[in-house]
Design goal:
By secondary structure, the chain is mainly β. 5% of the residues lie in helices and 43% in strands. Pfam families: Big_5.
């Protein structure tokens, strides 16, 4: 008689085994989740022929990596020096990169293949930085080098991922026209080193390209540049060849942006900071008398309001220092309509008013009338009528509310609908603002006793915030005191500009003219200015730092 119990046991085990296999099979189909992000670029395992090969006569070079890779922008990133009429051909073969030399090689010459940022891993795009291959068709390899550091001329910070390149002096005319073949990129500390150089006289440059660039060709409109004015003679290893990058001013005036806004204003942005700008409506000439023009602080942007928008087209002439720069034509459709919202911004920070300022109201376009009777000011819920509404004497986009604001009081400001009337009879809607007066104890004062290195020169002492935005500037010509008074407590830094042309601002450089930007010096220690604090410190300005 069959053993039913054993048979049942075997069937039960078989069912469990089947379930386990099914579970494992399902588990194996899942994609692993999580894990650390891959930040390591491909590593070179071998180069054939070996790097630094002498008496080179091969037609193909093979570089093997430890993982699969992609080639990106190889036509832009890869170069060979000296140049060849027929550029080498790059091919992927699994984890190997083949470089086929398609042109003949010169005798007794060192060649450098520079791959730039063309080789990166497949998954994360980690780039193999400064990958190069060097060989010589003769018994010797050029072994000279140039090294140094690249910093930003104004911020004094190291510039990483900047291209540093040299051009033989006879090829310097190609600057900005053709990408260099001898180059490297700076590391995170801003340092660079160009290797395997031959004896000669060169010009050296540092190029910081804007986002979207990468062709290693200088574009003045978008890139920053650094250079050493005098050619460098490479007959030994050169160290401490430092460069400072800067943004050149545009040599020729050009319009960057022009448009007729949806509120009817005209916006024009230039590529230069104008010195004494003027806007004229030439056609229809009758519109010129009623126009209102606003320039920003740097005089590189203007906004124009016209009191009549019935024109089909209008011509706007841009002048600077009495010279006509350009005339622009703006057209509008007869059915075009405009939206004008009288929004009002203010100078409150975190619901608090600076005790050394009046409440400032700023408008998006000119205000033609104001009705103080529609303003309600409450002090701790008690109505106050002793405030004044004052229009700025210069800036037609600003009004002030003057009142003897008090500490530990709560203020409610209600601007009723129609308090302000702007051009084309646009009116504000109801606006409510609630604030308190910041305590004067939250502010600070620092007096500096400044000693200058040369009284025949000029200097500008600047207080900056932690983001290096300018808070206050003081022109200085001799040993004197400057007072940084009634500013919010916090951390500040000091920068000194060596004002060579004595115009009170920092001036950039010019490659074509061969002059460097004005030098700067930073007080390295960050100053922590405490609340309700006043102190006096010395500031000894050193002699100008040495530069390129």
């Amino acid at each position: 008689m069959p053993n039913l119990k054993n048979q049942h046991f075997n069937l039960k085990n078989l069912a469990v085994l089947f379930a386990l296999l099914l579970l494992l099979g399902c588990a194996s189909m899942q994609t692993p989740q999580g894990g650390p992000k891959d930040t390591t670029p491909p590593k070179v395992l071998s180069m054939t022929p070996k790097n630094q090969t002498r008496n080179f006569n091969a037609k193909k070079i093979v570089i093997e990596f430890d993982e699969y890779f992609n080639l990106k922008d190889e036509f832009k990133e890869f170069s060979i020096s000296p140049d060849q009429e027929k550029a080498p051909e790059l091919k992927k073969r699994g984890k190997k990169l083949e470089i086929n030399l398609q042109d003949s090689l010169e005798k007794n010459t060192t060649y450098t293949l520079n791959f730039g940022k063309s080789v990166a891993d497949v998954n994360e795009g980690n780039v193999v930085k400064n990958l190069s291959y060097v060989f010589s068709t003769g018994p010797e390899i050029d072994s000279l080098s140039v090294s140094g550091k690249v910093i930003n001329s104004l911020s004094d910070e190291a510039e990483k991922d900047v291209t540093v390149f040299i051009l033989p002096i006879e090829r310097d005319t190609l600057f900005g026209k053709k990408r260099p073949s001898i180059y490297t990129t700076t590391d995170s500390a801003g340092t660079y080193k160009l290797n395997n150089l031959r004896k000669g006289t060169y010009k050296i440059y540092a190029l910081k390209e804007s986002s979207g660039g990468g062709d290693k060709i200088y574009q003045q409109i978008s890139d920053e540049i650094g250079f050493v004015k005098e050619p460098i003679v490479i007959d030994k290893n050169l160290e401490n060849i430092d460069l400072q990058t800067f943004k050149e001013l545009a040599p020729e005036f050009r319009i960057l942006e022009r448009k007729l806004n949806n509120d009817g204003s005209i916006l024009i942005t230039f590529n230069q900071q104008l010195k004494s700008p003027k806007i004229t409506i030439t056609e229809p000439a009758a519109l010129d008398a009623g126009k209102q023009v606003f320039f920003n602080k740097t005089n590189d942007t203007t906004k124009i309001w016209l009191n009549d928008m019935s024109f089909d087209s209008v011509k706007v002439a841009i002048n600077d220092q009495g010279k006509l720069l350009q005339t622009l034509n703006f057209t509008r459709g007869k059915k075009d309509t405009y939206t004008r919202d009288v929004t009002i911004s203010d100078n409150l920070i975190g619901g608090k008013l600076n005790p050394y300022q009046q409440l400032t109201l700023t408008f998006p376009f000119p205000v033609t009338a104001a009705d103080p009777s529609k303003i309600i000011l409450l002090e701790d819920s008690v109505k106050r009528n002793t405030f004044e509404l004052v229009k700025d004497s210069v800036d037609f986009l600003k009004y002030y509310i003057k009142y003897p604001w008090k500490n530990k009081k709560n203020y409610d400001l209600k601007l009723g609908a129609g308090t302000f009337t702007a051009i084309f009879n646009a009116k504000n809607k109801d606006i409510n603002k609630r604030f308190t007066l910041e305590s004067a104890d939250a502010y600070t004062t620092l007096v500096l006793n400044v000693t200058v290195p040369d009284t025949s020169k000029r200097y500008v002492v600047q207080f900056l915030n932690e983001k290096k935005d300018i808070i206050k500037s003081f022109p200085v010509a001799k040993n004197s005191k400057i007072t940084f008074s009634k500013y919010p407590a916090g951390k500040y830094m000091l920068r000194v500009i060596y004002d060579e042309n004595k115009n009170g601002i920092w001036d950039t450089g010019n490659v074509k003219e061969g002059f460097q930007p004005e030098k700067v010096w930073y007080l390295k220690a960050l100053m922590d200015l405490k609340p309700n604090w006043e102190r006096e410190d010395p500031l000894v300005i050193p002699a100008p730092p040495k530069g390129p």
